[in-house]
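Bug report (template v2)

What were you trying to do?
Predict the complex of my protein with coenzyme A.

What happened?
Run completed; filing so the output is reviewed.

Input:
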Amino acid sequence: MKNQDEIVIVSAVRTPFSRFDSAMAEVASIDLGVMVMKEVIQRVAVKPEEVDDISYGTCILAEAALETDVPARQATLLAGFPAECISLSLDRACCSSLTCLRLGVRAIKAGEAEIAMAVGAENMPRTPHLAPGLRRGARLGHIKLIDCLFELGYTAKGFNPVAKDAGEVALEYGVNREMQDAWALGSQEKCAKAYAEGKFKIGEELMPAVIPQKKGEPVVIEKDESPRNTSIEALSKLKPIYGSPTVTPGNAPTMGAGASAILIMPRRKAEERGLKPLATIVNIVASATEPRGIATIPALTIQKSLDHAGLTIDDMKLIEINEAFAAMPLVSTKILAKDDAKKWKELQDKTNVNGGAIAIGHPVGATAARLTMTMAYELRRRGGGYGVAAICGGLAQGEAVIIKV
Ligand SMILES: CC(C)(COP(=O)(O)OP(=O)(O)OC[C@H]1O[C@@H](n2cnc3c(N)ncnc32)[C@H](O)[C@@H]1OP(=O)(O)O)[C@@H](O)C(=O)NCCC(=O)NCCS
């Protein structure tokens, strides 16, 4: 008999991820969150009042600020959860929705919750420009507008743009521009193949995003909007961004909107309810390193998780490493392969088998839960096994989760 105390994923869903210029760009991230929060419980007939704990990640705070504070609380109430439901808004940059899952696991293990939900919601294109100082009046001179999306690099406080650190460190690891462009092309091709094979489908990982219009029928988005046809020739012509030696718009993800949610409970509870778990959570950890090491942190976090679980990278049938840029999966698989060229190739072959953020998109707060569910559904298609998903975020923080299907 399986361990009844193990924590299992019983439901996992996301909206499609949008492009910058999308109908979704007008929808508040809170409303995207509401969509997935309703859907993830409906699919398994869990009632709102049965969910004890909701952690909600969102990390483009300027967009959330359009609705002022506590996005988790607002989304919880708007999605029809009772006023007594405990929720938490959190920002651990791109790691956020896996951080939410980790907190949900903790709450269940601590006996504080029986059913927990992890949510990630983001709308990057809706991010307003900031006009600091206006509250005190602008007596004379030009008004300065700040674009919080530009460079995504915390440059105001002296940190580098992420693309600069990632590109420079990639070169130090022998991961050059050509390798990053080749990875980017592979991401697009693997994603196109997965779509052609019906892997990203409504009712499984995806739900439709239904966007009401002022006039006429709602716009319904059923597929990710970022995947594109490209070639090595086209990729190699693109200019690097934000002072990076290697990162270009082609080997980076676009900025989009989207939301994802995962529902967890102890296996005992799932069995009582007649639910077939999608995956068992074996281990989930966080880590952090020097900001410059952002491309290395997925590897370090995966290794920490494997060590905690008493497993090795060879036990993993599939790996997901977020393509914050192509540099991340390349550098991190190289570290995990310990400079063994054959092993490095093997690890690359089982990483992001259905494409990654470069093709699918990267609405930052929603991505980590997306990696987890993409891998869970794919492991199920492949007859089960272990998988590890990892993500880097904001000044080299990391989250990793090992699941078993
Ligand atoms: C990379 C980034 C700056 C691009 O922004 P953008 O300039 O608005 O993006 P676009 O989609 O217009 O792409 C720029 C150009 O590259 C081209 N391009 C993009 N991807 C391409 C591809 N795969 N093949 C060929 N051309 C491509 C576009 O067609 C466009 O060309 P144009 O200028 O001739 O129209 C922006 O998406 C970004 O900052 N992404 C990274 C987000 C991020 O940092 N996430 C978090 C990581 S931790």
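What did the reviewer find?
Residues 177-196 form the longest helix (20 residues). The longest strand covers residues 257-266.
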